[in-house]
From TrEMBL:
The keyword Flavoprotein applies. Pfam families: DNA_photolyase, FAD_binding_7. Residues 2-131 form the Photolyase/cryptochrome alpha/beta domain. GO terms for molecular function: deoxyribodipyrimidine photo-lyase activity; DNA binding; FAD binding. This is Deoxyribodipyrimidine photo-lyase. SUPFAM superfamilies: Cryptochrome/photolyase FAD-binding domain, Cryptochrome/photolyase, N-terminal domain. PROSITE patterns: DNA_PHOTOLYASES_1_1, PHR_CRY_ALPHA_BETA. It comes from Pseudoxanthomonas composti. FAD binds at residues 224, 236-240, 272, 373-375. Its cofactor is FAD; (6R)-5,10-methylene-5,6,7,8-tetrahydrofolate. It comes from the Bacteria. Belongs to the DNA photolyase class-1 family.
Length: 472
């Protein structure tokens, strides 16, 4: 049988893997390869937390391949040179991969595809990550969407899901002559074990993704609309890292949801599918407006009076020491687990960009290094949405009050108590704004800041004043 390289990138699964399936259906014996080339990702190379997940995801993929008689070839270096070397060593006649959409990797992949085709190889790239690709949908005028609701309507009207399929029961062996580096040689795993808390509730890899989906279908889905904004409860799917690393196909998730559809669950299912389409919307924006990873989509904010980031205040925000309990809880959850509840992500982002008036890029960079599901499209859209500078954005003058947000979405203060443990002894009302009870705070939580690093009312007033000035 002729050989084909199957270049794994952000698609670490064997089921529903279009590139792998296309190679097998075309009659090739697949040679699975992963190329570690962080230098080709520009400024937005994977952060430390994301690398920790990648290490375990590659390990799981390697084990899954070995169980089927194949193996994962690991190499590092320039992607084009590594592919050329593998082609020369194996005699491969084709190369398959699933597409990536980041500004740095798209032109690289286009150049590699052109070069390989000129050599006479068959080259095929596939959609392995999205329900609709960034160029699939256009407005009536032919341009890209900037508002989510019409994008969502168009996406649902044109939605065509691929068929799902199990992972191959067996795969051809990879010739022993093809050498592979060890996973340890890629240097992805943290040396000091600071990621221990990441794995208490999550299992990287395809099996972990499938299990997370089943847990969601049997549990949180049944109250998703009501519970998804509650960080004190398991009300979300927890699929984000698995989707980001391609350990599960989004269309498998949709089809699993549709298989459960009933009158009782219809609203829950529709709400979750809407979130998957929001993810597609993020990639749509990234493709059409690649400059937004570092610049405002709304040009009016290019001259907005952002405050100079105080190193001490920025550090306090990063480490959960702001004196605002819900903000500190979110940032400590992130530091410990590599994830943060989505509602709390909005709260901490609003606090940084509004109350501290720090440019959203500072927050995006911190999330990039500390989130296991750090995704350039979603990270950019999320930060610009909260900051009021992006597509379909929450207006800048919408300033989240972190106290009332905590009271609404963590009404029993359990999330705060879980992550800001020094406040667990405070009675419930004081847990939301402990500076209002200074004597109680001093007696029961002496190690917690006496006051927030910025007065909430003053921070809001300054943000609105800066916004008003920018309008003039």
């Amino acid at each position: 049988m002729p050989l084909a390289l199957v270049w794994f990138r952000n698609d670490f699964r064997l089921a529903d893997n279009p590139a792998l399936l296309a190679a097998v259906e075309a009659g090739y014996d697949p040679l699975p390869v992963y190329i570690h080339a962080p230098h080709e990702e520009g400024r937005w190379r994977r952060g430390a937390a994301s690398n920790a997940w990648l290490h375990r995801s590659l390990q799981a993929l390697g084990e899954d391949l070995a169980q089927r008689g194949s193996r994962l070839i690991l190499r590092q270096g320039d992607s084009d040179k590594v592919l050329q070397a593998l082609i020369a060593q194996s005699g491969a006649q084709a190369v398959y991969w699933n597409r990536k959409y980041e500004p740095a990797t798209q032109p690289r992949d286009a150049a590699i595809k052109q070069s390989l085709k000129e050599q006479g190889l068959h080259v095929q790239s596939c959609n392995g990550a999205l329900l609709s690709e960034p160029w699939d949908l256009r407005t009536k005028s032919g341009g890209p969407y900037k508002v989510f609701t019409p994008f969502y309507r168009a996406a649902m009207a044109q939605l065509k899901l691929p068929a799902t399929g199990d992972a191959p029961a067996s795969l051809p062996s990879v010739p022993d002559s093809l050498e592979s580096q060890t996973l340890a040689q890629l240097g992805l795993a943290p040396a000091l074990g600071w990621d221990a808390g990441f794995w208490e509730a999550r299992q990287p890899g395809e099996a972990g993704a499938m299990e997370a989906l089943e847990v969601f279908l049997d549990g949180a889905l049944h109250g998703y609309v009501e519970q998804r904004d509650r960080p004190d409860r398991v009300g979300t799917s927890r699929l984000s890292p698995h989707l980001h690393f391609g350990e599960i196909a989004p269309w498998r998730v949709v089809q699993a949801l549709e298989a459960r559809r009933s009158a009782k669950l219809a609203a829950q299912i529709d709400a979750y599918i809407r979130q998957l389409v929001w993810r597609d919307f993020a990639y749509h924006l990234l493709h059409h407006f690649p400059h937004t990873v570092e610049h405002n989509l709304n040009p009016r904010f290019e001259h907005f009076n952002w405050a100079k980031a105080s190193p001490s205040k920025l550090h306090a925000w990063q480490r959960g020491l702001t004196g605002v309990p819900i903000v500190d809880a979110g940032m400590r959850e992130l530091w410990t687990t590599g994830v943060m509840h989505n509602r709390v992500r909005m709260i901490v982002a609003s606090y940084l960009t509004k109350h501290l008036r720090v440019h959203w890029l500072q927050g995006a960079q911190w999330f990039w290094d500390t989130l296991v599901d750090a995704d350039l499209a979603n990270n950019t859209l999320g930060w610009q949405w909260v900051a009021g500078t992006g597509a379909d954005a929450s207006p800048y003058f919408r300033v989240f009050n972190p106290v009332t947000q905590a009271q609404k979405f963590d009404p029993e203060g359990r999330y705060i108590a879980q992550w800001v443990t020094e406040l667990a002894k405070l009675p419930l009302p004081a847990r939301f704004a402990p500076w209002e009870k200074p004597d109680l705070l001093q007696r029961l939580a002496p190690d917690y800041p006496r006051q927030p690093i910025v007065d909430l009312a003053q921070g809001r007033e300054d943000a609105l004043a800066a916004y008003a000035a920018s309008k003039g």
